[in-house]
Amino acid sequence: MNERSTTGLIGQSFAIVASILLAFAIDAWWEDYKEQEEIRSLLEGLVIEIEGNLRTLETEMLFHRAKSKSAVEILQMMETELGEVNPLRLDELINDIMWWSGTDFATGTLDSIVNSGGLKWVEPIELRSQLSSWKDKLELFKKYEQQDWDTYHDKLLPFLALNSNLAQLGAAADGRPGMTRSYEGVYRQVPDTEMVNHKVLLQNQEFHSLVIITNWDQGDFEASVPEILEHGRELLRLTKSVVD
């Protein structure tokens, strides 16, 4: 085999190897491109998801603040002469602290990004960090909701079942605390049982403690939700900066 033939074979070999490497590089680039486009599409959906969760948090914050306000008003009544207490207003306030919430946050898009391993494709790093901790923030809110429910269901409701007229308290509902419209439902019916003056509860130490605990539960929301909202708004800003 002459020198020219050998050189030609070597050249062909290099060309083949280069073609294979180029094919691999193109495939890798294409896979990366598809991954990034998929993540971009998910981030567009995430914007809608975050906006919805922020609206929910803002609404629920109004609810818990209103519930706290009602609890504080009951505590103030306990320091007032019973003759000066409006029994109908007291029923409304007790009804207020009997409300609870079970928020269902939308996290499907976030879960898709995290569970698919797509978080590594998210840029900038600050957005990646905010995303990785967002669900923990929402879970913290859910934890406080569970605490509020436990106080109501395991402590306040059993006490009121034994020491009040629940039908009468239910009929006092004028809407979920923090709502701007009145509540119309079955509990607006006038109870058939004899009306009870619940002012006696204002002198009950156990009831006093339960109202305080209820107010403490609302304080946990007040302490945490503003930070959760701030986190969510920053996450929304960063996400929009990527997809816009």
Could you explain the architecture of this structure?
With 244 residues, the chain is mostly helical. The protein has one domain. It contains six helices and no strands.
Topology:
Blueprint: H1 3-77, H2 87-96, H3 108-115, H4 125-163, H5 166-171, H6 205-243
Based on Cα principal axes, name the global outline.
elongated
For the record, the count of structural domains works out to 1
Separation of the first and last Cα atoms: 63 Å
Number of strands: 0
Tally of individual helices: 6
How large is the radius of gyration? 30 Å
* Topology pattern, helix = H, strand = E: HHHHHH
- Structural class, by secondary structure, is mainly alpha
| Biggest pleated sheet | none
**Helical residues, percent:** over 70%
Uncertain stretches: 25-30
Nearest-integer average pLDDT? 84
Proportion of beta-strand residues: under 5%
Features:
244 residues, mainly alpha, 6 helices
Give the gist of this structure:
73% of the residues lie in helices and 0% in strands. It is mostly helical.
